[in-house]
Specification:
- The complex is a heterodimer.
- By secondary structure, chain A is an alpha+beta fold.
- Chain A has two domains: 78 residues, Alpha-Beta Plaits (2-Layer Sandwich), CATH 3.30.70; 69 residues, ACT-like. Chain A, domain 2 (Alpha-Beta Plaits).
- Chain A is elongated, with a radius of gyration of 19 Å.
- Chain B folds into three domains: 171 residues, Rossmann fold (3-Layer(aba) Sandwich), CATH 3.40.50.970; 167 residues, 3-Layer(aba) Sandwich (Rossmann fold); 178 residues, Thiamin diphosphate (ThDP)-binding fold, Pyr/PP domains (Rossmann fold).
- Chain B is built from 21 helices and 23 strands.
- In chain B, the strands form five sheets. Chain B has a six-stranded parallel β-sheet, with helices on both faces. In chain B, strands 11-10-9-12-13-14 form a six-stranded parallel β-sheet, with helices on both faces. A six-stranded parallel β-sheet of chain B has the order 16-15-17-18-20-19, sandwiched between helices.
- In chain B, helix 1 crosses helix 2 and helix 8 crosses helix 13.
- Chain B is globular and about 80 Å long.
- The model of chain B has no long low-confidence stretch (mean pLDDT 97).
- Classes of the chains: A alpha+beta, B alpha/beta.
- Chains A and B meet through helix 1 and helix 2 of A and strand 6 of B.
- The complex binds thiamine diphosphate (TPP) and magnesium ion (MG).
């Protein structure tokens, strides 16, 4: 099962490499990973999307928690949460037909066109990872994708619950 | 008034003395010359010059295992630091607190593939508890204080501190500030067992009919053998120790059923397999203990006490997990037992012990020494036990001799038994024995080794000469990599691929060349008297080379993929 883990840790050099090293050393899976400092710049927040059964997940959470730099870890997928990922995708848009079609699809998905070239459109879209997958699949049917980049997902719990020190 | 200022090198030394360090084990080189210069100009801390950095780590480790104090290692950048890797991994696997100070090329050169530049923090990332790259001069003392704090608290382990050369230059000086009472918001290692779990554990224990206590290295690390003995005597239960936990309770205590696991005693493994409740204390259900996890004690309810949550339910699912320091939790258990008016179920206990005595009487740990035939290695260990009244510190290397030492020298106290359990590092024994001898110069320190292992750090005989470390080295010389050979006999149709030690040197002559005494023993008649002679020599290192039967195997031995009590008990005989 897919899980989204949120990790709050010291914003210290080497902290990220310890997390990444731990995952590879213990053969845990990383589907995506994002990291940035939080509003308190002495802290970083990492979001990792991973897969594994309950036993593996239990080990991942415990092992991450054991790292000296790590303050807290939580499995967002255990409760209600908001999950977002950013996609930037450059597609072929050479004639009226394809331009209208790309614009139409991007409107349906609530994306926005952020750059236009002679033969390309660049679209920005945020949403759950599933939504981005669906968008890319739809686009592929209409035009050619030149390149795409995804941020990896970030997430936050719904309601009062917060990950903070 | 001007405040006094110090160079980085001086601050390293000052920080170490503030942390009450007596010895540094190390080897000099370019990146740490300023530090060596600072060490030269003081006399609070003694530097022990080894002959190979790996030995520095093992010597620090042996010193720590014998005393409980954090060992300090110093190595230069590049090859000096990488030579420490095996010793760091060895300490990591057995949760030994250690601080390794490694030099680094100047900050401005880092990343340039400079001369003797190795990313030692990167190299050691998977085998340390934590590591630091020092990048700020004024920060050095507090980084070192943090390193000690992290290494020695919670589940202990090695910490690497990398210090670039330019931070130690004599011309750059700043005031010295150190906070030895370390607090870190992301690291809170002192944990009491959760009261609900303590209650659950006591309830489970009270309902048990066939309880066994299984304790490990955690007891030794926590210096908790007194509490453990009280707990055992309160519960009147049988207790078994892991290889790392030997001495946690006296090896001659009547409730002790021996070591468990791959080469554990027949009765220990039988007791585990038939128990209805297993109380695991500071042990981690290592694969050398469990054998096939699928077949591991399927009917037992498991209470698992450990400071490290990752150890709990990692290989074997715990029904009652208790996270906490093992000494603290044992005290909580004793208090709760008292509060709940616990009295042992004498009837169940009697039945259980009757069964255990039956297993014990089968005496499946044994060997046959025939007069006039080659010396059995087990016989040598038994002789050492008698001569030293069971009071020696015994450091061992890795192989058959290690298992014979564990089986035939019942340790009375924790910290007496010093061996590389988790990593199984050949070459550990001699430097580890040296570390113990440095700490306890008036105690017998014996290194039980093999003809293979001793050659992995034999150069340290020179260090022993320099610092007058009169340990007694006893090589159970079977002219082979015995443990490898045993597997080849049992699993590989007797094909001895590269397990012979051809062209062995004369170890007694090597010892003599280094200025020590060498004694060779090759017949049973002279075994006891010559060992006595060796152990009576006070001020010189003695290397005793005992030629033993090369065909001897270590038994019992787990049958691969079997249950914990599926064992070979002698050649070709299954239990
Ligand atoms: C550094 C290292 N290399 C290889 C091994 C694998 N190994 C385990 S026991 C052993 C043989 C040890 O021979 P010896 O020291 O003579 O002890 P014996 O088993 O003969 O008593 C070997 C090669 C190891 N444990 N450590
Ligand atoms: Mg040998």
């Amino acid at each position: 099962m897919r899980h989204i883990l949120s990790i709050l840790l010291e914003n210290e050099p080497g902290a990220l490499s310890r997390i990444v090293g731990l995952f590879s050393q213990r053969a845990f899976n990383i589907e995506s990973l994002t990291v940035a400092p939080t509003d308190d710049i002495t802290l970083s927040r990492i979001t990792i999307a991973t897969r594994g059964d309950d036993k593996v997940l239990e080990q991942i959470v415990k092992q991450v928690n054991k790292l000296v730099d790590v303050m807290k870890i939580t499995d967002l997928t255990e409760r209600k949460h908001v999950e977002r990922e950013l996609l930037l995708v450059k597609v072929v848009a050479i004639n009226d037909k394809s331009r209208t079609e790309v614009k139409r699809i991007s409107d349906i998905f609530r994306g926005s066109i952020v750059d236009i070239g002679k033969q390309i459109y660049t679209i920005e879209l945020t949403g759950s990872s599933d939504k981005l997958n669906a968008f890319l699949d739809t686009l592929k049917n209409e035009t050619e994708i030149i390149e795409s980049v995804r941020s990896g997902c970030v997430g936050i719990a719904r309601g009062e619950k917060a990950l903070r020190v | 008034m001007t405040t006094e200022v110090f160079s980085g090198a001086e601050m390293v030394v000052k920080a170490l003395s503030a942390l009450k360090v007596k010895y540094i084990f190390g080897y000099p080189g370019g990146s740490v010359l300023d530090l060596y210069d600072a060490i030269f100009q003081q006399d609070e801390i003694e530097h022990i010059l080894v002959r190979h950095e790996q030995a520095a780590t093992h010597m620090a480790d042996g010193y720590t295992r014998a005393t409980g104090k954090v060992g300090v290692v110093l190595a230069t950048s590049g090859p000096g630091a990488t030579n420490c890797v095996t010793g760091i991994a060895t300490a990591y696997m057995d949760s030994i607190p250690m601080v390794v100070l490694a030099g680094q090329v100047p900050t401005t050169l880092i990343g340039n593939d400079a001369f003797q530049e190795t990313d030692i923090v990167g190299c050691t990332r998977p085998i340390i508890k934590h590591s630091f790259n020092c990048r700020d001069l004024a920060d050095i003392p507090n980084v070192i204080a943090k390193a000690f704090y992290i290494a020695s608290t919670g589940r202990p382990g090695p910490v690497v501190v990398e210090i670039p050369k330019d931070l130690m230059l004599p011309q750059n000086k700043v005031p010295f500030n150190i906070e030895t009472n370390v607090k870190m918001r992301s690291y809170n290692p002192n944990i009491k067992g959760h009261p609900k779990q303590i209650k659950k554990a006591v309830k489970t224990i009270s309902e048990a009919k066939k309880l066994v206590i299984y304790s490990g290295g955690g007891i030794v690390l926590a210096d908790a053998s007194g509490l453990l003995t009280t707990l055992v005597e309160t519960l009147k239960a049988p207790i078994t120790n892991t290889l790392m936990g030997l001495g946690g309770i006296s090896g001659t205590h009547e409730n002790f059923v021996g070591m468990l696991g791959m080469h554990g005693s027949f009765e220990a493994n039988k007791t585990m397999a038939n128990a209805d409740v297993i109380l695991a204390l500071g042990a981690r259900f290592d694969d050398r203990v469990t054998n096939n996890v699928e077949k591991f004690c399927p009917d037992a309810t498991i209470i698992h006490v450990d400071i490290d949550p990752t150890s709990i339910s990692k290989t074997i699912n715990a029904h009652v997990p208790v996270v906490g320091l093992v000494d603290v939790v044992m005290q909580q258990l004793l208090d709760e037992l008292q509060a709940s008016n616990f009295t042992p179920d004498e009837e169940a206990l009697q039945k259980w012990w009757q069964q255990i005595h039956l297993w014990r009487d089968m005496r499946h740990v044994g060997y046959k020494q025939v007069e006039g035939e080659k010396i059995k290695p087990q016989r040598v260990v038994e002789a050492l036990y008698k001569i030293t009244n069971g009071e020696a510190y015994v450091a061992s290397d890795v192989g058959q001799h290690q298992m014979f030492a564990a089986q035939y020298y019942p340790f009375a106290k924790p910290r007496q038994w010093i061996n590389s359990g988790g990593a199984g590092t050949m070459g550990f024994g001699l430097p580890a024995a040296m570390g113990a001898k440095l700490a306890f110069p008036n105690k017998h320190v014996i290194c039980i080794t093999g003809d293979g292992s001793i050659q992995m750090n034999i150069q340290e005989l020179s260090t022993c000469m320099q610092y007058n470390l009169p340990i007694v080295i006893v090589a159970l010389n079977n002219r082979s990599l015995g443990m490898v050979r045993q597997w080849q006999d049992m699993v590989y149709g007797g094909r001895h691929s590269s397990s012979y030690m051809e062209s062995l040197p004369d170890f007694t002559k090597i010892a003599e060349a280094y200025g020590h005494i060498g004694i060779k023993i090759d017949s049973l008649d002279e075994l006891d008297s010559k060992l006595e002679q060796a152990l009576s020599i006070q001020n010189k290192l003695v290397f005793v080379d005992v030629l033993v039967d090369e065909k001897e195997h270590v038994y019992p031995m787990h049958i691969r993929q079997g249950a914990i009590d599926d064992m070979w008990v002698e050649k070709g005989v299954k239990a």
